[in-house]
Structures are given as structure tokens and as C-alpha cells.
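<instruction>
Derive C-alpha cells from the sequence
<data>
Labelled lines for chain and fold
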Amino acid sequence: MKTRRNQISLTFLLFLPTILLFAQQFNSKVLAKVDSIFNAQFTKNGPGGAFAVLKDGAVVYKNTKGLANMEYYAPITDTTVFNIASNSKHMTTFLALQMADEGKFSLEDDVRDHLPELAHLKHKITVKQLTNHTHGLPNVDELNQFKGKDRMTNSEILEMLFEIQTFNFKPGEHYVYSNTGYVLLSEIIARKGEKPFEVLLDEYLFGKLNMNSHAIGNFNQIVSNLADSYGQTSKGFQKNPLTSSNMGASGVHANFNDLIAWAKHFYNPQIGKPSFWKEMVKPTVLNSKKTIEYGMGLQFENFKGVDIVFHGGGTVGYRSYILHVPGEALSFVFLANDGGFSGLDVVYGSLEVILNDSIEEEQSTFETPLTQYEGTYELNPGAYYTIFAEKDSLFWKSHGSSERLFLPRKNNNAFTFSPIPYSKLTFYDDRFDLRIADFNYPSP
């Protein structure tokens, strides 16, 4: 009996550091700060959100606030449904990896072999390049604007994509975030699976994980318990409904409990293979051998000394965010129906509170002269901007315009882009990158 007690004591001592760390991270003071960060973003009588923190697969904080429908004062609950927008992408990728593992197609296949409507394209695009935004095709959202269409179902979007004649760049040359690749991938999945894409998502993912989520390909479709999407105006809030449906890239409708279940699946896969997640967070390698911190439907980087894996989603007033800290088995899940950047405030604010001892503040260094960054840059095809220095300050202006914008310096080669929250310009030898929230726009 004495030996048994000694074994129990030894086991306890072995796990004591983990227990103490867990207690330190999630004591009442820390959770109170997290709660304060979340509650500061919303009111009870306006649109709102849902936020959860998970540690080692267990929910340590969970809260909802605000209204799913302002006309009937219907509150947001953990079963309220939201459009999760681009967080659909890693679900689409996971499904593609399952089907590739079954031999239905290969990630290195030529997209033209599966979509003969694109046989006229002069360059090979691999299935994998659809997932990591290196395919080089025009973005579906920009094509919508060129065609003057602001209301399109997924089938109409597909018809438009099959009319693409040219590339913005040769596949693999650059990384440019785009919904086009995932819309095409969802169609390949549907054809090789011989069922509608939304049915395959239900069968392969949602049904097996007991999630009530569904992909919707028509923005007019009725969705039970759906939170309305809102936008802020000078006269108050107004409804901001969906007008397009990009299946595969967006379109998944999920409730709070569903997204929590999906976050748990990252650490403890119940379907597919654990290697799928590892494959999804491998850096993308361009033809030039340059690496990009975006894999297959997931982004990753080091945030103030902490390695994170994440993806955001936003369409009209819907917002979603999932962030993992693999080294801490920690996850953050966020949903909202009021637009804006509240999710970044909540998620990253909570991360810094919980991992306070690991956070490293950015050091400001100013070694490179501002004149080094002067020049004319192309942000989008035909959209040119001039960067120039004057009296120890850097400025931005539209090419040919007299109006200029001061760029406050963050560190040596990074500058705040004040018109948009959570935005900055980072300069390199051959370009600047405009970072808006999670999105990176390289500008040569």
C-alpha cells in the first residue's frame, strides 16, 4: 500500500508544473480580464458576438452577448448560426485531403483535367495551388465588380469563373489571397465525389463530428436560427444581408458549439488523419523558393514571441476567427454579426492576457533611411501609389493625386496604415506588403 501511495505522489509531482501553469493561466483574475475584453466590444441591445477559450480540449471560458435579431430582441446563444465566411476554407481543405487520401484525385493533378471548362488556360494549375492562393487566376470578388454584378449564387459564380481567359501571374510565382481557388476546388470535390459539395461536407465532416453546420450555395436560402448581419450607419444599425455565395471559399453556416467542436478537432482529430493538419500548416514555397506563412487554408506566424495558427472570416456583417497556440494546446473561437475588427481585439487581447509571461513587445529600430522606401508601387492591377519621404516622415498618396497620408513608423521597415484598423505597410527590397488584419497584399 505504501508503494502505491508513493507512485501516486510521484505521478502528482510529475504533473505539478502543468497543473500550476494551468492554474496560473486561468485563475479568476485572468478570466475576469478576458471577460472584460469581450464585454467591452458589445452591448446587450445591439448586434453582438460569442467567444470561447479552450485549453487542452476543455472550454475554460465561454460567453455570448448581444442580439441575433434586433427587431425581435432575440439574443445570441451558443446555438445561434453565423456565416463563418473564409473559415470555410480549412474545412474545404480538410475534405479535399480526405478525398485525396482515398485516391479520388491528387493534390498535384492539373485542374484542367477535372474541370474541362478551363482547358483553354495556357498554364497548369495544381489542385494544391487552389488551396494556397498561388494559382494566379483573377479573384472572383473583383470579377463580380467588373461584371457589375453584386448578387450571385454559387452556380452563377462558377459560370463566370469558367469564362476566365488569362492569368494575373504564372501559377506558383506569387501568393495573392483569393476566393477563386476554393470555389473551383469545391466543384472538383463535387465532381469526384459524385455528390453536391454541401452533401459531401455533411458526410465527411459535419455528420461525423456531430456538428449542425451546413454549406449554403444560395444566399436566398432560409437558414434556421440564423443571426442577422448588421452594419453601422450614422443613424444606427441597418441590416447588411448576404448577396453572394462562394461555395468552398465561404458559405459554411455554423453555430458557436460547432466552431468549438471544430477547434477541438485541431488537437484531437476524430476524422481523417492527424497528418492532414500538419500538411495544412506547411509553408507554401513559391517558384522562386521564397516561403509564405500560409499553408493550405490556414495561416501561421510568430506573434510577439508566440507561434500561432489561425484564420479569420468576414463577409458583410458576419465575422469569425479561430486561433490556435499549438505550444500551449490553447485555442480561441470568435463569432459576431456586427462587422468591424472586434474579433481581433478580443482574440489577441485575450491571448496577451493569458500568455503574459511569454509575450515579447516589438522593438523599435530605425536604421534604414526613409528615402530607401520611396517609389511607385502597384497594389492591384492598374492601382498605383507613390511613397515619398519629406522632413523625416514617410507619406502615401494615390499616383497623380495631391492628397497625402502620413505613415507613422512602427519599426525599421514597418509603418502604420491609419485609415484601416489593424493595418500596416512593411517594406522590402522589391515591394511593400499591405497587411490588413490577416490579409497580406504584396505590392511590387
